[in-house]
Amino acid sequence: MNKINPIYILAFVVVVFFISISTLNNKENEFKNLKKDITDLDTKGKIFSEYKNNWFNKNTVINKIDKIVKNAAYKNEKILKTQTKNVVRIKFESNNTKLLNSFLNRVLNEKFLLKKIDIEKTSIYLEIGLV
Questions:
Q1: Nearest-CA neighbor of 89 among 130, 125, 131?
Q2: What's the Rg (C-alpha) of the chain?
Q3: Residue 123 near residue 91, CB atoms below 8 Å
Q4: Looking at residue 1, what is its pLDDT?
Q5: C-alpha count within 13 angstroms, C-beta hemisphere, residue 43
Q6: Does an H or E element contain 66, and which?
Q7: Could you report the per-residue pLDDT of 83-128, keeping only the tens digit for each?
Q8: DSSP 3-state assignment of 37?
Q9: What is the mean pLDDT of residues 61-87?
Q10: Cβ(69)–Cβ(112) under 8 Å?
Q11: Within 13 Å, how many C-alpha atoms sit on residue 79's CB side?
Q12: For residue 12, how many other CB atoms are within 10 A of its CB?
């Protein structure tokens, strides 16, 4: 019977060792990438949950709209607000362009689902979605 040279066995063990180390490193990199993806997905989920609570809460949106409409700066101006099941319509009329600009800035700086904006020289018409 022929003997197997121990150098061949040693070379085989070394090759298997390097292949297993390489495979282990690849799997470790895949694991790190998956862990990073899960962390990113978790943060995106938290951000989406925060958006959902802020943007789709009817009571919060209505309270913010009422706060803007009842502001003392707009007390002498003509503001018409109507509310349906899914939309709040606001028409703000004023000859003072600074007040128009201020009102528009306040509305645009809030987190509203704006469905329609119609801006004219003396009035602003808004439709804000509730759902």
A1: 125
A2: 32
A3: yes
A4: 55
A5: 5
A6: helix 58-69
A7: 999 999 999 999 999 999 999 999 999 888 899 999 999 999 999 9
A8: helix
A9: 91
A10: no
A11: 21
A12: 11
14 is written with which tokens? 């070394």
Q: What are phi and psi of 37, to 5 degrees?
A: -65, -40
Q: Which amino acid appears at position 86 of this protein?
A: N
Q: Which of 82, 85, 79, 83 is closest to 102 using CA atoms?
A: 79
- The token pair that represents 85 in the structure block: 């099941």
Compute φ and ψ for 130, nearest 5 degrees: -100, -20
Asked if residues 27 and 53 have their Cβ atoms less than 8 Å apart, the reply is: no
Alpha carbons 91 and 47: distance in angstroms, whole number: 32
Cα 88 to the center of its chain, rounded Å: 23
State how far the Cα of 112 lies from the Cα of 65, in Å rounded to an integer.
9
Helices H, strands E: what count in the chain? Answer: 3, 4
Q: Which pLDDT score, from 0 to 100, does residue 45 have?
A: 94
pLDDT in tens, 21-47: 999 999 999 999 999 999 999 999 999
Please name the residues in contact with 17: beta carbons below 8 A apart, sequence gap of 6 or more: none
Question: What confidence score (pLDDT) does residue 52 get?
Answer: 80
Does pLDDT of 81 surpass 80?
yes
